[in-house]
Each structure stands twice: as C-alpha cells, then as structure tokens.
Amino acid sequence: MTPSAHRHRGPLRVGYRVTVPNPRLPVGRDLLYGVYKKRLRSSLPPDSLPNHVAMIIDGNRRWARQRALETAAHGHRAGAAKVHEFLQWCDELGVRHVTLYLLSQDNLVGRDSSELTELIAIIADLAEEVSQQPDWRVQHVGSDEGLPASLVTALDTAEARTASHTGLHVNLAVGYGGRHEIAQAVRSILEEHGKRGSSIEDVAGLLTPELIGEHLYTSGQPDPDLVIRTSGEQRLSDFMLWQSAHSEFYFMEALGPDIREVDFLRALRDYAGRHRRFGS
C-alpha cells in the first residue's frame, strides 16, 4: 500500500479535541519532539511494519477522573478523538487493517446506565465520522445482541457506505466478546452443516481451526500481527482470543487520550525488533 500522508484527512468531530504534542512544552522541546518523531519514522523499514494492528484504547475514565471532569463521557470523547489520530498514523504508515476494541459485551451489563448511554452515542458518532474518510472501509465486528437500535443503524450505515472502499480496513469491535465469537462460529458451522443433513459426527470430522476461522467476525482478514493496549493494563479482556494466538503484544503506560504518535512509533520499533516464532 502506498502511504497516504498527502491525502486530506478531516478532524473527528466528536466534541473533544486532544492536541499533540502538548502545547505547554517550550518551543525547543516541541522542535526536539518533531525531530525525534521523524527519526523514529525513518528507522522503521517498510517490510517490518505490521499488516494488522489491534488496539485496546483503555484509561478514558481514569483520564477524566485525573482532571476532575464531571463525567466519564469527557474521557470517552477524548479517547474517540484520539482514535481518529491513531487511524491516521496507521494509514500514513501503510498499515492495512486496524481493529479497535470500543465496547465489550461485559460493558453492556457492567457500566452505569447513564455512562453507557453517552458511550453508545459517542461510538455512533465515531462510526459515522470514520466512514466519511476517503477510501477507509468500516466493518462492525461483534454481536448486535444487546445494542440499541440507533447504534446498530449507525454501524450498518457505516458499513454500507464504505463497502466498496479498498483503503484502510477499520474494524469496530462493538458488543464484542472473544469467547462469544468463538461459540458463535461453532454454532454457525453446526447450523450450516445441519441444513445439509450432516450428522454431528460428520461435522466433528470436518472441524478444523481453519474452518472455525472462516466463521469468525474477521473472516477473510489477516490475524493481528500486533496487539496494543494503553493505560498500563496487561490483559486481553476477552479481545480477539482466537485471532491473537500468534500476535505480538505491546503495553503502553499512557492513558488512551494521552497517547502520542511517538508512543505508537516506539511500539512499531519494538515490534520490528522481535523475532516472531508463531508458536514455535
């Protein structure tokens, strides 16, 4: 893929702008930041970059609490604005697939109702905004079960609008759970072969990792090469359990809204220096 740094990318209008780098930095340090960023970019051989990056942008609520903001929604909006920046970084570097963990199935039952309502509206806005970007393709990965109709409509509309696009493929993991995805894949296989009159024994003989992979939400896409999580947490939280079997993992200390491009470039530099063993 040819890097698209010269294509215009509009800002994400989600109601919160995060400026990077920090405008409080002295001019000299700001200049050094730019030089360091260019040096990091130039140190990354194109053939060392991941084809698929999966991202858990965590720490939005903590970010809002640290700033004594009234509600967690401020943090979620700041995180959503950062998502758009992150996608631009990926596109400019030639990453072809990005999966963003936005709302888990556990979130649907474990979050305060008012916070969840605001978060759902933010995700709907994000889906609409990302789908407006030239060439980007949006795909919902997750279950519609438990999602409000307004969010399902927003996700479906974003998918339909971008179905023919061939640029950056953006998976929005909403209403997502890794264990549920695997169970749903097996259920789909059983239903498909049951309609053909196959017995359980017949299906059991056909069941392979490859067949299950064909029935996952991300069927037809490469598995993530690199999984990144912000906020210092070091766990997957039921995210892409099947697809990440051979992924590399990178954990950032920065909270989601605070990540900078240099943080991402450092993650890519770390990834480029690893020898991937694919289970061996």
From TrEMBL:
GO terms for molecular function: magnesium ion binding; prenyltransferase activity. It is an enzyme of class 2 (transferase). Mg(2+) binds at residues 58, 248. CDD domains: Cis_IPPS. This is Isoprenyl transferase. HAMAP family: ISPT (MF_01139). NCBIfam families: PRK14828.1 (NF011403), uppS (TIGR00055). Its cofactor is Mg(2+). The lineage of its organism: Bacteria, Bacillati, Actinomycetota, Actinomycetes, Micrococcales. Catalyzes the condensation of isopentenyl diphosphate (IPP) with allylic pyrophosphates generating different type of terpenoids. Its EC number is 2.5.1.-. It comes from Rathayibacter rathayi (Corynebacterium rathayi). It comes from the Bacteria. The active site is at 58, 107 (proton acceptor). Homodimer. Substrate binds at residues 59-63, 76, 104-106, 111, 229, 235-237. InterPro entries: UPP_synth-like (IPR001441), UPP_synth-like_CS (IPR018520), UPP_synth-like_sf (IPR036424). Binds 2 magnesium ions per subunit. Keywords: Magnesium, Metal-binding, Transferase. PROSITE patterns: UPP_SYNTHASE (PS01066). Belongs to the UPP synthase family. Z-FPP synthase subfamily.
